[in-house]
Every structure is written in structure tokens, then in C-alpha cells.
Please model this.
Amino acid sequence: MYKNKLDTVKYYVKFFLIAINIPLILSLVGIATVIKVLLPKRKFKDITDKVVLITGGGNGLGREISLRLADKKCKLAIVDIDEKAAKETLSLVKSKGEHRTYRADVSDFAQCQSVVRKVEEEMGPVDILISNAGIMPCIDFVDISMDQVEKTVGVNLMSSLYFIKLVMDKMLERNSGHIVCTSSIGGQIPLPGGSVYTLTKFGLTGFLEAFRVELAYLNKSVKVTTLQPYFLKTNQEISNFIENKIDLMIPAFDVDYVASEAVKGILREDKVVTISNEFNIMIYLFKVLPPFIKDFVLYLGKVIKKEN
Ligand SMILES: NC(=O)c1ccc[n+]([C@@H]2O[C@H](COP(=O)([O-])OP(=O)(O)OC[C@H]3O[C@@H](n4cnc5c(N)ncnc54)[C@H](O)[C@@H]3O)[C@@H](O)[C@H]2O)c1
Model:
């Protein structure tokens, strides 16, 4: 079945790691679920007439989050480089209300600046920012071009900093507001085969952790939420990619489920939304591993197959 001895060894080590981890993960999931059930749930906040600016709202997760938030009667400003897709999202919104679309390449600060200015003029100051636009070039660092590196860092990381900087002052003045960014599980557990993607998501996750505490020191009630989904089938391209190019032990999630959980987390003002408890435990277990075991686990688990 296996081509060589190394593959056979890899198979047994993988099997062993799964065998010792499954009971551990199951007991921790059990404990976490009991704690979650016992803790009182925070109420959902009312977002009626609040201005929500969402980037990447034209497709995938951004579209699904937009549709669910629109149902809560907020005013949506959908920002996307793909204007047609943003308009399609708008056409799917059932609730009547003041919703608009804006075209911008979010990796360009000047375009972000002009969009925020227009939104403020036409809709009012931003109450909730959801920086969600992202790209996922899964290419080993030896193969990726510097243009692709810059684009990925621009869209996945810099755009969040641009938008936060642009809406933050007014939020601080009003002492209210909510900043939400879509990071990824790849911001906690590296993704070999997508090292630059990992760079952007680790950067974003770390930044938000530090930024939240900086706001706490200012004694401001501006909220910060990090969304960290696992692989999800958002569009045909990503679904094909997930099916053909990667080898996942845990199957990819459905976008409807992830969007619903993300919206619940946003409305509860959760600090971090990991979608599913198993991932919190996986992240925790991964973080405490010594580096050589981490490397080994990542080596065995490299999910992205290299293009030949
Ligand atoms: N799909 C997954 O498996 C997965 C897993 C974890 C995290 N995420 C994150 O979720 C977020 C949404 O991803 P998705 O799967 O819905 O992707 P998607 O490709 O379905 O949608 C992304 C949207 O962002 C827009 N966009 C891309 N570049 C842009 C730019 N320069 N300026 C403005 N808009 C731009 C696209 O037009 C598109 O509408 C991303 O931040 C992604 O990293 C996705």
C-alpha cells in the first residue's frame, strides 16, 4: 500500500498521534462543553440602524455574514473589488433599508480612505467594521513571487490595519464601536504550503490580541472580535481546491454554518470566534508542544499538496 518505508513509518506515527489525541480531545471537548453550558450566555446586541462596513462582502463568508446582519436591520456598506458580486449580495438582501455597495481594492490605502469618506458622508460613521476580504494563495515560499507576497500581505493584513485606522478615531470619540476581522485557524496553527497566508493570519491575530488590550488601557468600550474559521467551502474555486489539492483530516465546514456562528459571536461581542470547540482545544494542544514535535506534526500534516 505504501511506496516506501518512510511512508509506512509516517502512517503509523500519524495513527499513533491520532490514537493518543482522540481520547484527550474528546475529554477536553466534554469539559469545555459543560463549562460553556453552565456559563450564562451574553445577550445579542441590537444593531438596528447601525452602519456596518464589511469588506469582501461580494462572495463567500462575507456575503453570508452580510445577509444575516442585514436581517437584523442594520445599514450595510458592502465593500469589494468585485462590484458585480457586491451588487449581487445586495440583491439578495431581503430586509428593506439603507444598504449600499462600494468598489475598492482594499490593499490600497488611498482607496480605503476614499471609501470610508464616502460611507461616512452617505450613511454616517461606521459602527461595526468587518474586515473580511482575503485571498489564499497556497504556494510554498520557494515558489511564490514577491508580487504575490505583497498582494497577500496587502489584502489579508494591511487592509485590516487601514480600515481600523480610518474608523477608529470616530469610534474612540463616541466611545462605542466594534471592530471585527476575519483571521483563520491558520493564524494559530501554521499552514505549510501557505507560509505567506500563515504570515498574514498570524500577524492579524497577534495584532488584534495586542490592540484589544491597548484599548482596554485607554478605558474605551470599543469592542474587538477575531473570527478564526477553519477551511470552509465558500465558492466553487475554493471547493475544488479543497477537494483536489488538499488532504484534510477534518472535513471543510459549510459556509452557512460558519456564517451563522460568526454572526452569533459578533452579536455577543465575543473576543474570539473559533466556530467549533474542538479547534480551541487543538490550538491549545498545538501551542504547548515543543518546537521539534510541532515541526514533526506539521511535517506529517502538510495538507497542501505541492503543484508539480
Ligand atoms: N475559505 C476558507 O477556507 C477560509 C478559511 C479560513 C479563513 N478564511 C478567511 O475568510 C475570509 C473570506 O474568505 P472567503 O473564503 O469567503 O473568500 P471568497 O474568495 O469567497 O471571498 C473573498 C471576497 O474578498 C474580495 N476581495 C479579494 N481581494 C480583494 C481586494 N483586493 N479588495 C477588495 N475585495 C477583495 C473578493 O472579491 C471576494 O468577494 C478571508 O479573510 C479568508 O482568509 C477563509
About this structure: The chain has one domain: 5-300. Residues 5-300 form a domain with the Rossmann fold fold (CATH 3.40.50.720). The first strand starts at residue 51 and ends at 55.
